[in-house]
Amino acid sequence: MRASTIVVVMLLLLGPVQICQTETEHPSTSQDLNTVETRSSATTDTFTTTEAAPQDSSDYSLFQVSLHYSYNDVFICGGAIISSRIVLTAAHCMFYRWGGLMPPIIIIVSTGRQQLNETALQSYTVANITLHPLYNKTTTGNDLAIVEIEDTFETGSLTSQLDVGKYVPEAGYNHCVVTGWNQFTLEFQAVDVVLVDCPNYPGHICTNKKYEDGSICISEAGNPLVCDDKLIGILSVEPVCDDPVQLTIFENVRNSISWLNENVEAASGALLGKGVYLYNVCLVFVICLL
Fold first, then answer.
1. Are 250 and 201 in contact (CB under 8 A)?
2. How far apart are CA 6 and CA 56, in angstroms?
3. CB 3.0-4.6 Å disulfide test: which of 168, 200, 213, 279 passes with 15?
4. Residue range of the domain that includes 236
5. Which of 221, 166, 226, 162 has its CA nearest to residue 193?
6. Which stretches are tagged as biased composition: Low complexity (predicted)?
7. SS in 3 state form for the chain?
């Protein structure tokens, strides 16, 4: 066997090892989620109630995605990138109006849209949809779904992932933002909100607009609630636009952290296995040519 051929075979054999080393050197989001600790909302070493300036929507479009029908590009819901392969959205977004669950092939995930009617910078096919195991269409609560894409999101200046917050601030906290697209202009916006009590929705997070001229009627289901650059909630019940209170109801993401960890870890493992498989195919091909 020629020396050059031996070198090629050795490189292919070492390929899977290189992948494993890369995974070790760069911890996955699942590891970050697992290190999130549960802390009392009364703790104020991170969250403060000082006045904050209005947010720049361009800062929040990095982790925001829009879900569309793959066959006509019609908008379905919003979502947030929480790992290299996973989007978190509302579970009820994954159903047709007649009640059936959509198959993954029906949905595409788009990034980089400042206008809903413009072409996406990147679009990704969906590999799997996982509903929260306790979600029930007839009741409120656990309205969360994980959308796993086939490959990985392209990292860079236009895409980023959002970390889950360590805990939920108390009512009255005002360093929070809801992102989404304006229903009338189709423009992406970020609206400052304040957390409020909502005793009629236990286990949820409720918000109201922070500024008098602000509106959260822009937001569709599945869009994220972000406090101090951390994911706190996913929009479940949209506000009534002519309601002066404009109460918006979000699923508390912290309540489902174990479920998120399991699925993010599974998605990372699936991607690693796919890489090893491709290397093995290449190895067999080269050996057959010898």
1. no
2. 56
3. 279
4. 49-267
5. 226
6. 37-52
7. CCHHHHHHHHHHHHHHHHHHHHHHHCCCHHHHHHCCCCCCCCCCCCCCCCCCCCCCHHHCCCCEEEEEECCCCCEEEEEEECCCCEEEECHHHHECCCCCECCHHHEEEEECCCECCCCCCEEEEEEEEEECCCCCCCCCCCCCEEEEECCCCCCECCECCCCECCCCCCCCCCCEEEEEECCCCCEEEEEEEEEECCCCCCCEEEEEECCCCCCCCCCCCCCEEEECCEEEEEEEECCCCCCCCCCEEEEEHHHHHHHHHHHHHHHHHHHHHHHHHHHHHHHHHHHHHC
Determine, yes or no, domain membership for 18. Answer: no
Number of domains in the chain: 1
Query: Is 109 part of any domain?
Result: yes
Q: Is residue 56 part of a domain?
A: yes
Domain membership flag for residue 144: yes
What CATH number is associated with residue 212? 2.40.10.10
Q: Read off the pLDDT of residues 56-71 as tens digits, 9 standing for 90 and up.
A: 555 778 899 999 999 9
